[in-house]
Amino acid sequence: SDDLSPSPHIEYDRLLGGLLIEGFEEKSCRSRYQFARYHNSPSIPSPYLIERLRKQEALQKKCGPGTKAYKEASKQLRSRQSINVTEDCNYLLLIIHAGLGNRMLEITSAFLYALLTNRILLVDRYKEIANLFCEPFPGTSWLVPSDFPLNYGEFTQNSPESYGNMLQNKVVGGSTDRSLAGGGTTPPYVYLHLDGNYDFHDKLFFCEEDQQFLQSVPWLIMRTDMYFVPSLFLIPAFQDELGRLFPEKDTVFHHLARYLFHPTNNIWYTVTKYYRSYLAKAEKRVAIQIRIYETKGILQRNGPFPHILNQILSCAQNEKLLPEISMTDGAAAETQNNRTVAVLTTSLSSWYSDQIQKKYDEHTTVDGIIVKVYQPSHEEYQRSKNKKHNMKALAEIYLLSMGDVLITSGFSTFGYAAQGLAGLRPWIMYRSENHMVPDPPCVRAMSIEPCFHQAPYYDCKAKRDTDLGKVAPYVRHCEDVSWGLKIV
Ligand code: GDP
User: Fold this and answer.
1) Per residue in 401-423, pLDDT tens?
2) Is residue 72 located within the same domain as residue 153?
3) Position in ligand 1 atom list of the atom nearest CA 389
4) Does pLDDT of 181 surpass 50?
5) CB within 8 A of 98, min separation 6: which ones?
6) Where among 260, 282, 309 does a domain terminate?
7) From the CA of 415, how far away is ligand 1's center (Å)?
8) Do 253 and 394 fall into the same domain?
9) Are residues 165 and 274 in the same domain?
10) Domain annotation covers residue 450
11) 58 with 143, same domain?
12) Among 95, 218, 262, 284, fewest CB within 10 Å belongs to which?
């Protein structure tokens, strides 16, 4: 009902410019059609992207779990047959792991890859995806059925089925040996190891000739914890299509994440209730994501670290994101007709938000604005296998995305997910070294895209390493991870 809306009179497009379609039951997943009430997108999806999403939905439905095509394809997999008789149904199964931010980045990357290569995307059913997110595709499920024939949880970098090992053992050709490409037989499935620890041969996934080979493999099983989209933009065979899908290149995650991710009702209820209780009435919402990567002993990993508190405050004040504190206390004490700024912080620790609140309670601000700090939870440490913990984390990613301005901690995929959903270019706080406040404490992001942390730096054509942050104007090194790549 409309009383849920923070501002019921504001026009909003519940279908997000055509990314979404009507027809899903609203009650079973309220966030799907309500997301737009809480966000202003800076960009409209291209008609071609919308056309391709509809095509992908049709494919997911035609080949998904329960269909004749799926039964046939999984039968072939069970019998390790390599001839593919259901030619227009090829699959990409994504193994899910890691924290929630990483998961959102990896699912988005896998989905884009599936779309580019006309595969059906299926995701790991054992990692609570169903508790966190509603089904994105109409009339079918993206969860891989429980009777899936392969024990994919056991695949590791050392598995002989991994693409890297197949190349090394010359089972297949790819870009390492042209004479083998096409000459050998096509395996029924290939395991793609694209985790942070991947090696030279695994990374050849990002070469065009290897993509040509993989195109013929009916089942790809992928394990990744990364946003590898920037490297897809560097594969010549995908460039035209990507240009048509995303005329504004830096909106890939923004559009695809809003298309794919719809928090389940419990989570969405928490988010909207919190928003309406604490954030809706403020004149401005400043969202601050505090993620701490100090390497000191595990017990004090999240602090309290005064240098991080100072970094947050100097970033917010230098960039005029939070009101300036008055130097002449008492004189400017008349508060101005209840103007408030709401600060939404997320962190595993409550210390930072308590300190920020204390600062503003003890001093008045120059223009009399009141600052109120809210932090929904403080979980103390990461527990990515705990259902309630993950639900809180997802709620907080969405609350961060509802800020008018956003400050994030560099390196963190949690923050990338929030900025991407919001369509905001955040101020990124640099990672501190030796307990010093970095100078400057933060920098405005070049784009709303996430950073690909472990990007390969191999030039497939020249067959040597090169700086891939310099080969295309729209793929650059990240602000926070100097060796990473991001689309700008
Ligand atoms: P990254 O490690 O910062 O890149 O982000 P991930 O989301 O992949 O993993 C961190 C995990 O730690 C999250 O998914 C949460 O489970 C937990 N976590 C980290 N920061 C927060 C926070 O601010 N709030 C909550 N609720 N959980 C957090």
Assistant:
1) 999 999 999 999 999 999 999 99
2) yes
3) 16
4) no
5) 106, 225, 384
6) 260
7) 9
8) no
9) no
10) yes
11) yes
12) 284
Pocket test for ligand 1, best of 294, 414, 416, 429 (most atoms within 8 A of CB): 414
CA dihedral 385, 389, 395, 396 (to 10 degrees): -110
Does the beta carbon of 416 lie inside 6 Å of ligand 1? Answer: no
Give me the number of domains the chain comprises: 2
Give the pLDDT confidence of 121-131 residue by residue, as tens digits.
999 987 789 99
Confidence bin at 2 (pLDDT 50/70/90): very low
Across the range 12-36, mean pLDDT stands at 96
Least Cα distance to 288 among 336, 251, 341, 359 occurs for 341
End-to-end CA distance of the chain: 38
ipTM above 0.95, yes or no: yes
Q: Residue 25: CB partners within 8 Å, gap ≥ 6?
A: none
Structure tokens at 394: 């997802």
Q: Which amino acid is at 210?
A: D
Listed in sequence order, the residues at least 6 apart from 295 whose beta carbon sits closer than 8 Å to its beta carbon are: none
Q: What is the CATH number of the domain that holds 370?
A: 3.40.50.11350
Ligand 1 centroid from CA 426, angstroms: 17
Calculate how far, in angstroms, residue 132's C-alpha sits from the geometric centre of ligand 1. 14
Does residue 392 sit within a domain? yes
Residues 324-356: tens digit of each pLDDT: 998 775 555 565 667 999 999 999 999 999 999
State the residue range of the domain holding 400: 265-487
Which of 382, 396, 400, 416 best tests ligand 1's pocket when mutated (most atoms within 8 Å of CB)?
Answer: 382
What predicted TM-score, i.e. pTM, was given to this entire model? 0.95
pLDDT tens column, 80-133: 766 655 568 999 999 998 899 999 999 999 999 999 999 999 999 877 899 999
Residue 96, both tokens: 């899910």
In the listed set 235, 260, 285, which residue is the last one of a domain according to the structure?
Answer: 260
Domain check: are 101 and 211 in the same one?
yes
- Tokens read off for 30: 């309220």
Considering the domain architecture, whether residues 165 and 293 belong to the same structural domain is answered as no
Ligand 1, atom 9, residue with closest C-alpha: 99
pLDDT of 397 reads: 98
Output the CA 53–ligand 1 centroid distance in Å.
30
Same domain, 388 and 239: no
